[in-house]
Amino acid sequence: MKQIIAIFLLLALNLMPSLVNAGAIDQAVQKIESQWAHIYYNVAKEQQEAAYKRLLAEVKALKSQHPDQAELIIQQAIIVASNADNIDAFSALGAVNQARELLIRAIRLDPNASGGAAFVTLGSLYYMVPGWPIAYGDTNKADALLKKALAINPNTIDANYFYGDFLAMQGKQKQAVSYFKRAMAIPVRKNQEFADSQLHKQAKLAIIENNQFVAAN
User: Fold this and answer.
1) What are phi and psi of 137, to 5 degrees?
2) C-alpha angle with apex 158: 156 to 161, nearest 5 degrees?
3) Which of 112, 28, 40 is nearest to 72 (CA)?
4) Predicted TM-score of the model (pTM)
5) Residue 45: C-alpha distances to residues 41, 65, 77, 84, 172 (Å)
6) Distance CA 118, CA 73 (A)
7) What are the start-end ranges of the H helices in the chain?
8) Nearest CA to 49 among 24, 6, 7, 80?
């Protein structure tokens, strides 16, 4: 019995650093998400580029210690893609290409990281960016990636909202409304109350706009 207990304690001690490390990473990712939401929703447009650059520097510093942490790679991709709106067209094209490569790497490392967030973000890029020959926009790939995100975790506000937004852009307003309603029905996360509340507001507005479109047509 003593030998079994000793083995158990040894295993526990060996696992403890990784468990502590995982908790620290989770907290760091939550902080980055909160800072991103503050910049995206509250910071004036002309000040966003500098704010994103500061946040990106924080993420890169963490990544230097954890280079293969999919969650951090996803956050880097989101910041890079978000900042594309604040830079010139040529630089923006480079930014969305970089974001795509980062997300592909994150998926290879851990497709389930952050509840499938890489699939949500990559799918959104595929329907938002221009198609060939300018960029890589592809509605079929967007559809497949966003459905994959929903398959991994159907109970996330982001996955439901962005699939609804994708459907609306494809002229499928009735289907889009059903996903916006699903997004609205999912409770906000306590650790990301501000960001989730903002997306709830966007979903509510999208329901009104798409219902009005359906009624008018």
Assistant:
1) -50, 135
2) 110
3) 28
4) 0.87
5) 10, 31, 19, 12, 31
6) 9
7) 2-42, 45-65, 70-83, 89-109, 117-128, 139-152, 157-169, 173-185, 193-216
8) 80
What would you measure as the largest C-alpha separation in the chain, in angstroms? 76
Question: 3-state class of 168 per DSSP?
Answer: helix
Beta bridge partners of 131: 137
Residue 211 burial (CB count, 10 A):
15
- Three-state secondary-structure class, residue 43: coil
**66, two tokens:** 């954890």
Residue with tokens 């980055």: 32
Reduced to 3 states, what is the DSSP secondary structure of residue 217? coil
Q: Is 137 helix (H, G, I), strand (E, B) or coil?
A: strand
How far is residue 70's CA from residue 107's CA, in Å, rounded to a whole number? 7
Tokens linked to 184: 């609205």
Q: What residues pair up with 137 in beta bridges, in sequence order?
A: 131
Residue 132: name the closest of 140, 203, 55 by CA: 140
Contacts 24+ apart (CB under 8 A), 42-49: 45/86, 48/83, 48/85, 48/86, 49/83, 49/86, 49/87
pLDDT tens digits for the chain (217 residues)?
A: 445 444 433 443 343 343 335 577 888 999 999 999 999 999 999 999 999 999 999 999 999 999 999 999 999 999 999 999 999 999 999 999 999 999 999 999 999 999 999 999 999 999 999 999 999 999 999 999 999 999 999 999 999 999 999 999 999 999 999 999 999 999 999 989 999 999 999 999 999 999 998 888 7
